[in-house]
Write a structure and sequence with these properties.
The protein is about 15% helix and about 50% strand. It is mostly beta strands.
């Protein structure tokens, strides 16, 4: 489904929730979009494509280019703009490249969104309504608040969301359209890790080098296999993972088997957005706010 750089493992107070829900209701209603969660972490929203729809898209911050299923491409009469060669674990794939004139979520829209046309049969087996994946080339054009408890996505028109919340602003690094945040992991050792903020992951994933630095891999052994039948994923735990002011203790992680592409990675692994109750992403100013609070009047 994704190229090698974006490959990943399979999809993992109450007071805070009610106050956040109350503050969200006070904001402009047109920018709020209902979402549903598939397997508790995969975000699905209804989007308008080329003024048609709505169509169900997965929102995925771990994917660069957006994707549409061939059935939707035919419905929208998308023209081919060339081909892209992708090297995946299962082998090389040649995909058609095209473009949507507009892709809209509620009142917010983006123009000229490049898409790859790829069979989404695996996703559609789980949910037959899914017809595309909205990646970073769509999401990076907006500031947004993702609320897992309320099941809403709020795309910011100006700075109305930022002005209504408070919390620690964690600097966000953009590299090849990926959202990277610096974390600190500690087991028997300590390491600073640059993790890709991923709305599609359900488990922290660490590449082999940083996982060894913090002794993340326990004696659980290999818990997954790759497509060629060889051991692929090793389970483990990190005693403490800190992201801004948020701290997770004894957190489960996955450590994939080394791949030739590891040397080209800029990230040390994946950080699931679903670890948090809500996430505010400010692409304009380059920061993330985890579990924001309503601003005191």
């Amino acid at each position: 489904m994704k190229n090698t750089r974006n490959a990943k493992i399979a999809r993992n107070v109450a007071l805070f929730y009610f106050t956040l829900a109350g503050f969200c209701q006070s904001l402009h209603a047109q920018s709020e979009i209902r979402l549903r969660l598939m397997h508790e972490t995969v975000i699905v929203v209804s989007l308008m494509a080329d003024q048609q729809g709505p169509f169900d898209f997965v929102l995925d911050t771990g994917t660069d280019t957006s994707i549409v299923d061939p059935s939707l491409a035919r419905q929208l009469s998308l023209a081919s703009l060339g081909h892209v060669e992708l090297n995946a674990v299962t082998g090389a794939k040649t995909l058609n490249r095209s473009s949507l004139r507009t892709l809209a979520a509620g009142s917010a829209h983006a123009e000229n969104v490049e898409v790859l046309i790829q069979d989404l049969a695996e996703l559609r087996q789980v949910d037959s309504h899914i017809q595309g994946i909205a990646g970073q080339n769509f999401l990076a054009r907006f500031n947004y608040l993702l609320d897992y408890r309320k099941h809403t996505l709020r795309l910011e028109a100006d700075h109305e969301v930022r002005d209504a919340i408070e919390g620690d602003s964690v600097p966000m690094e953009r590299s090849e359209n990926m959202l990277l945040v610096t974390t600190e992991a500690q087991s028997s050792g300590r390491a600073k890790l640059r993790l890709l903020l991923d709305s599609g992951a359900n488990l922290v994933l660490l590449t082999r080098a940083p996982s060894q630095a913090v002794d993340a891999a326990s004696q659980q052994g290999w818990v997954g296999t790759s497509s060629n039948g060889q051991a692929g994923i090793k389970g483990g735990r990190v005693r403490e993972l800190t992201v801004g002011s948020q701290q997770f203790r004894d957190i489960a992680v996955a450590v994939p088997a080394p791949q030739p592409s590891d040397a080209d990675r800029v990230e040390d692994g994946l950080l699931p957005m679903a670890l948090f109750k809500a996430v505010y992403v400010n692409n304009r100013e380059g920061f993330v706010m985890f579990n924001p609070r309503p601003k005191k009047q």
